[in-house]
Amino acid sequence: MATTAASVTDTCLRAQAAARELAAVPSTVKDAALEAIAAALVDRTPEILDANARDMEAGREAGLTTALLDRLQLTEARIAAIAGQVRDIAALADPVGEVVGGERLPNGLDLTKVRVPLGVVAVVYEARPNVTIDAAALCLKSGNAIVLRGSSSAARSNAVLATIAGEAATAVGVPDGAISLVAGGGREELAELATQTGVVDLIIPRGGEGLKNALKGVATVPVIFAASGNCHVYVDATADLDAALAIVLNAKTQRPGVCNAAETLLVHADAAPAFLPRALAALRDAGVELRVDGRTRTLAGAAVAADLLDAADEDWDTEFLELTLAVGVVDSVAEAVAHINRHGSGHSEAIVTGDVAAARLFERAVDAACVYVNASTRFTDGGEFGMGAEIGNSTQKLHARGPIGLRELCTTKYVVRGDGHVRS
Amino acid sequence: MATTAASVTDTCLRAQAAARELAAVPSTVKDAALEAIAAALVDRTPEILDANARDMEAGREAGLTTALLDRLQLTEARIAAIAGQVRDIAALADPVGEVVGGERLPNGLDLTKVRVPLGVVAVVYEARPNVTIDAAALCLKSGNAIVLRGSSSAARSNAVLATIAGEAATAVGVPDGAISLVAGGGREELAELATQTGVVDLIIPRGGEGLKNALKGVATVPVIFAASGNCHVYVDATADLDAALAIVLNAKTQRPGVCNAAETLLVHADAAPAFLPRALAALRDAGVELRVDGRTRTLAGAAVAADLLDAADEDWDTEFLELTLAVGVVDSVAEAVAHINRHGSGHSEAIVTGDVAAARLFERAVDAACVYVNASTRFTDGGEFGMGAEIGNSTQKLHARGPIGLRELCTTKYVVRGDGHVRS
């Protein structure tokens, strides 16, 4: 059952005790719990909608923006979709117990490296109440106890969702305390959660820069920060220009507010005269604001000239997250790579090329989580990568780089079996 | 060539530039560089001994302990041994480029997850000058640029060693700046190094608690702290008592000052009457100070009674790192597991048992990097595990758990190849 009255520390200690039991709970029980959660969400929809209506009302009184209210709002259809995602997670392979390596050592010891849960994962998130269930389902499937800390604006919705999930899970044998929500959305609770060294094994923040900075200042337990994405599409001299145009349009416009959307287009000087007039017109027609360097402006052609803005230095470093694109011309793959390694955030970077050597250089030299050859940056996503759901996307290099799925919510353990072996 | 005059920041920026080139340098060149380093160490032994003699002299004047002076001292034989280790590292498989996963996605995209270097690894270490070469060789083999920061007491030795390694490596095609030593062993240089966000990808401290705490206070770049080890041997009811005795003696006495030595012996009550008198006498005869609980004292027998001390509460949490052992009696495997999970540091834990169910419970429920069944904890070591050399041992759960070898000095990158794929 979800805890809403205990202190943050007590909640975390209960989660740790639950985690130690949960690590040994077999997949059948975890999957039955996920199925029970999905069913309970549907069965108890009126209860959820009632709590959500009170959050919405308070949100309107507090003057939340329409966008925030939309994130906060649950509907029967949205709840059904959340339940569907829980069933999708149940259908994934269990990462726990997967043997990831091992051998018989020369002395006869049998060494096995096996995947095991991290233990207690804390997820700190902002308005969207669906994260309560998504994150709980991913942690449960990967054998981790979860401590949730949502925002105060969704407190009633989150409390009901966490209670429903906790009750459904414990009813089929998941240890009590495996799914908890800490009460209080304040900075003090955040600091208490972020300093549970030896109890909380990982904190994953899902929210904006303010939340990240608040955590950076106080956290003593490990944090994986969700990525920002300053992503590039580079159109090489030998690119198929139709493919290049489709990829640029997709990477920029298909969903501009997400971290794997493109923010800068780089074009090789040899392709620029044919490509730029066409591409810039298409982008403009798609509603994209274009901030261009001098060479781009020269080659853009008269049809779009009036619609171009001059790129400022900071535009090359900006994650616009809206229909704005910086555009520049380069003289080589190497120059494109250097630009990307200097300005990019190491998220997702694409080359469009017909040249094997260019592709090979780009793949190797670009320092990013995901490098694309002749494909849109928009594919960086746990679902697209066949990992099922994801709890975020990492641009850090340690532990997890790229989508954070079930495996990335685990650590490993060496099991070494002998016959009385001692070291000489 | 090693940098000893530039600022820490400049050194790190040069290392980053070198790292980007080094990531694409093939194994043949890296192995040739390692061979060249090994040869140069032998060829230039007089130069190394001369610098080391000056460090030793300064150390004696500064009143360093005999133990510290021994760590600091290099001899012709020690230099030859260091060169041998470099050749051993050259003989290991290159982790860079290893494909660790991948598949053809349903939409036809080819997804490949490939191992790539971290980039710039900083190693901060205390007196032992051999770390200069060991760490440089491991980083070079794994395609990482290294920034070394040793202690001031070994400054002359470290400078010569880093210069020799850097010169030998660049002579065969390793980028300049791949092996650097920062001058100045002060806290300011440490803080400057530990805050190179976006430039230094990982700091590995090799030293005592003082060094760790100094880093914890200032580091903004990721740190993997070398482990402390409060390791246990649990002798189960069904243990082969001869094997149990051999394992306990080995785990405690074979090299008591290291992190994988045992600090606590737990004995099942059913085995205790037969095992304890014999084991305690053998441990005492091996020079081990015994700190025991009440039940152990009762069962120990007259022959050792006079040699037993009462265990204090803090003894169960202490990494003695010397010939001292806490000893307790438990009533079940579950009680042993609970004790270990409460008091252990998650390093290396052993059960001695003849019972399959007990072994299985212990393997699963103990939360540690390495769990042993019928073997000594002393095997936790990159060399013993077939990983070749190691740069330390991790008890943290993220990124690397257990020995940190060449693979753990890497991250991964997704390479995604398509035919103009866009996301719908």
TrEMBL record, chains A, B:
Subcellular location, principal: cytoplasm
Pfam families: Aldedh (PF00171)
EC number(s) stated in the UniProt entry for this protein: 1.2.1.41
Cellular compartments annotated: Cytoplasm
Record-annotated Aldehyde dehydrogenase domain positions: 3-290
Pathway(s) annotated for this protein in UniProt: Amino-acid biosynthesis; L-proline biosynthesis; L-glutamate 5-semialdehyde from L-glutamate: step 2/2
GO molecular function: glutamate-5-semialdehyde dehydrogenase activity
Catalytic activity: L-glutamate 5-semialdehyde + phosphate + NADP(+) = L-glutamyl 5-phosphate + NADPH + H(+)
Class of the enzyme per the UniProt entry, highest EC level: oxidoreductase
Keyword set includes Glycosyltransferase: no
Keywords, sorted A to Z: Amino-acid biosynthesis, Cytoplasm, NADP, Oxidoreductase, Proline biosynthesis
Role description: Catalyzes the NADPH-dependent reduction of L-glutamate 5-phosphate into L-glutamate 5-semialdehyde and phosphate. The product spontaneously undergoes cyclization to form 1-pyrroline-5-carboxylate.
Family designation: Belongs to the gamma-glutamyl phosphate reductase family.
Protein name stated in the entry: Gamma-glutamyl phosphate reductase
Organism from which the protein derives: Paraconexibacter antarcticus
